[in-house]
Amino acid sequence: MSITFNYFIGFSFIYILMAWAIYLPYRVKDLHFLTVATMAVTAYFSGVAAVNWGWPFYLVLISGILLGALISYIISFVIGDVPTFTVVIVGITFIFITKTVIENTDYLGGTMGFFAIPAVDNILLIMTGITLVISYFLYMIDNSQLGRAASVIFADKKMAYSLGIKPKRIGRLFQTISGGIAGSAGVLYAYFTGSLFPDFFSFHLVGTLMTIVFIGGYSTMWGIIFSALILGGVPILLPSAVSSWKNLIYGVLLVSVILIKPDGLITKKFLWKIKNKIKGM
Amino acid sequence: MEIVLAQIVNGFSLGSIYVLLVTGFNLMLLVARIIQFAYPQFVVLSMYASWAVLESTNNIFLAALAAIISSIILNLLSEPIFRRINNRENVDINASFVASMGLSMIIVEIMSHSINNGFPVSFPDYWGGKNLFSFGYINLGRGEFYALTGGIILVAIFFYLLYHTHYGRVFRAIAESRKTAKQVGLAVLKSSILSYLVAGILGGIIAILFSMLLGSASPWLGESVALKVLAVSITAGLGNLKGGLYVGLSLGILESLAVGFLAGSWANVIAFVLMLIVVLTKPEGLFGAAIE
Could you tell me if B291 lies within 8 Å of chain A, comparing CB atoms? Predict the structure, then answer.
């Protein structure tokens, strides 16, 4: 496989994981941008653990997932059931703070970046495995009582309370799981690229992930795979003269989808139709 | 002590700009029911418009006019997008936020690719760079003076219009309850469009004052300002106009004081950390949210 194609596959996996980390809390209408800060923390944690402390990959991976989940769990005590835009601003603030701390910490390489994270054999295979495990986990959540309760919260929070559903508890659970997913994405990103730069973990990444989630469709987890491949992966294959305009294309697509197909391209209804067609064949 | 005083003076100027931006942002939130995240980007693009006119004509009146007209056009052009979102059966305010994020991405990309080869633009000295008053460490530039006085005057006019005129009362009634406003026969759609016009005029004047204060503009300026405006609005209480006034001014002063004593990037962090503490302890904002 060529290096470019490797990057296409690797980044697609990272975008899929990160978009799922945003998708899950959005099941209860939380725009949980804290995931980007969590990804940054776990990516740098991986770098330090691998380079400075000499930890083996799997130990770093498990620790990264736990660290991501722990960060989100702690913050979720406060933002488990607050208005959507409070969650948004908490996430953005954490991104800003994390980025500034990294930029001003020499131990983490500052603005120059953190390098020489050792390569791991079969990293793409490991990424595939982790993505499959997480997809199964999300599928189980989506098709469980928990997933149905989340759909009620999304549609009508007051109704959810009336039905005895606990939005705060579900919100906190989803935020914690989302932190774990972002943690895994951070570790994989660090090992896959071998170097880290604070600029990657900025508001631009939030924009890209939002585009992936909203264009793919936020009502099911499957649309994200399709949109992450197209919007996250394909720009890597394009010449730089074209890919440098990707944010403009993202912006136009985002506005168009919100206007024309606000639920995204792949919705639950769309999947049911396909399912019925296949059954009817 | 003189340094502290100097930074407080700077802080008032910067705070006035934040207050104006938050006021425009809150106006659209209350009347048009949108989270207009791209509003500060419109302001920055209007700063670019005035820079372009200054570069080609050296005429400050034409440059100021260009800023106001471009801001009005940008705001009015965005109106049909948000109206379509708000006309849906189940109005979702998140959708307006996502759409405005898309608009914001488009504007940043246009500025960073097509204007001045993506490099930041500098405004000439006669635009706002001259020093008006010096006393020890305290220097009051023309830009700071205009930002401060312009900010105070504009906010005073805005609040007067809002509380003492017919349209101001209509705006507040719609903000209170859109449904009831419709039932009693108030022109909700017309007022909503009018709010874009008012926000556009306000944005144009902010662009003039902000460019005088900073002396430069860059494609990424709007992004950081947009985050601050959103943070101020949420810290004050989403849609709370008076709260936005106090928190916006406090942010300006705090940021300026931090700049005086800390390295550049840490100054912004201090302000964000304090706002974070407020938001985490009082999620509905210091002064209470005006909308749910």
Answer: no
Considering only CB atoms, which chain B residues are within 8 Å of A83?
A: 238, 283-284, 289, 292
Task: From residue A24, give the alpha-carbon distance in Å to each of A19, A134, A153.
Answer: 9, 11, 13
List, for residues B70-98, the tens digit of each pLDDT value.
Answer: 999 999 999 999 999 988 766 677 889 99
pLDDT score of B256 more than 70:
yes
Give the angle subtended at the CA of A272 by the CAs of A270 and A278, to the nearest 5°: 105
Give the ipTM of the model, two decimals please: 0.90
**CATH number for position A84:** 1.10.3470
| pLDDT tens for each residue of B166-191 | 999 999 998 888 889 889 989 988 99
* All residues at 6 or more sequence positions from B176 whose CB lies less than 8 Å from its CB, including other chains: none
B266 and A203 within 8 Å at the Cβ level: the answer is no
Among residues of chain A, what percentage have pLDDT more than 70? 100
**Distance (Å, whole) CA A39 – CA A15:** 11
Say whether A85 and B230 touch across the interface (CB within 8 A).
Answer: yes
Tell whether B119 lies on the interface with A, counting CB pairs under 8 A: no
Asked if A210 reaches chain B (Cβ–Cβ under 8 Å), the answer is yes
* Min distance A244 CA to chain B CA atoms (Å): 9
Alpha carbons B227 and B234: distance in angstroms, whole number: 11
Residue A81 φ then ψ, to 5°:
-145, 40
pTM value is 0.92
A263 touches chain B (CB under 8 A): no
Does B154 fall in a domain?
A: yes
Closest approach of B165 to chain A, Cα-based (Å): 31
As for how many domains chain A has, the answer is 1
Question: Which chain B residues are Cβ-neighbours of A84 within 8 angstroms?
Answer: 93-94
What's the Cα-to-Cα distance from A140 to each of A134, A155, A165, A186, A227, rounded to whole Å?
Answer: 10, 20, 19, 23, 22
* B282 domain residue, yes or no: no
Kindly give, in sequence order, each residue whose CB lies less than 8 Å from that of residue B37, ignoring residues fewer than 6 positions away: B97, B100, B101, B103, B104, B226, B230
Chain B interface includes A110 (CB < 8 A): no
Nearest CA in chain A to B85: A259
Share of chain A above pLDDT 90, in %: 77
Q: Does a structural domain hold residue B252?
A: no
Q: Give the domain extent around B130.
A: 2-221
Residue A14 contacts residue A189 (beta carbons within 8 Å): yes
- The answer, for B265 touching chain A at a CB cutoff of 8 Å, is yes
Q: d(Cα A42, Cα A28) in Å, to the nearest integer? A: 25
Domain of residue A120: give its range.
3-280
Put simply, the answer to whether B106 touches A252 (Cβ < 8 Å) is yes
Q: Please indicate, yes or no, if residue B100 is contained in any of the structural domains.
A: yes
Query: Which residue, among A90, A96, A245, would best test binding to B if mutated, counting the most B CBs under 10 Å from its CB?
Result: A96
Q: Is A143 in CB contact (< 8 Å) with chain B?
A: no
**Count: domains in chain B:** 1
Q: What is the pLDDT of residue A82?
A: 79
Contact A64, A45 (CB under 8 A): yes
Kindly state whether B104 is in contact with chain A, defined as any CB-CB distance less than 8 angstroms: yes
